[in-house]
Amino acid sequence: MRKLLHEVDPREQDGRDAVARFKAQYRAAAYQSLQILKGGEVDAVFCDIHDDYVVRKIINGVEHYDFYQVKTNNTKGFQWKLAAIFGINTKKAQELAKVKDSFVGKLMLHTVQFGEACLTVNLQSNKDFDETVYQVEDAFASGGVDHKNAKHFFGFFNEIHPDAKTFTEDGIKACLAKLRLIGASTLGRVINCQACSPLKAGPKRFISG
Asked: What span, in angstroms and rounded, lies between the C-alpha atoms of 63 and 108?
């Protein structure tokens, strides 16, 4: 018997998968760094500092940040569901610990820690999100406090993030409205919009932690 390398499934795949995830993360950051060349608001992109990558913008002489978490999945036909994105279980009593430990729960910490300096928190993936996930994002954007799957964040934000215990209802709404979901169907449009505009010389800074 004689088989070629590609004909036998590898015994261990974790390392290869990890490399693919990091590759997606750095590719996304590299696309963002192209905006630096436009000489506009973006003046730096930081990798593996506070999140997968952070885009710094200078607006009217003041620093602001867009935080990005990158999630990949190679399963055919896969879509992200409420449980992974928001820690929401629609069939059982909701556990706030799961909401806090969800992707969005962790992203929201930036809105608390950085305050007005945090412009947006972005969850970016090579896969799309289930429609119910987009509905929660819409509720966050519109301040829909009564939405059945968003109310845990609106109603218990102070408990999920103790550092936000003094936040008013309007302050909590402002934090949640900063969420952006970037799935496979929108990622291409975002990249084309950012990367294909006319470029001009500007400050150049792409920083990996």
From this structure: 19
Domain count, the chain: 1
Q: What is the pLDDT of residues 178-207, one digit of tens each?
A: 999 999 887 654 544 444 333 333 333 444
Output phi, psi for 67, to 5 deg.
Answer: -100, 140
Amino acid at site 185: S
Q: Which range marks the domain in which residue 153 is found?
A: 5-208
Q: What are phi and psi of 53, to 5 degrees?
A: -155, 155
The three-state secondary structure class of 94 is coil
What is the phi/psi pair of residue 30, to 5°?
A: -65, -40
Q: Dihedrals φ, ψ of 3, to 5°?
A: -120, 150
The closest alpha carbon to 45, from 30, 64, 61, 63, belongs to 30
Beta-bridge mates of residue 129: 80
pTM above 0.85, yes or no: no
CB 37, CB 203: distance < 8 Å: no
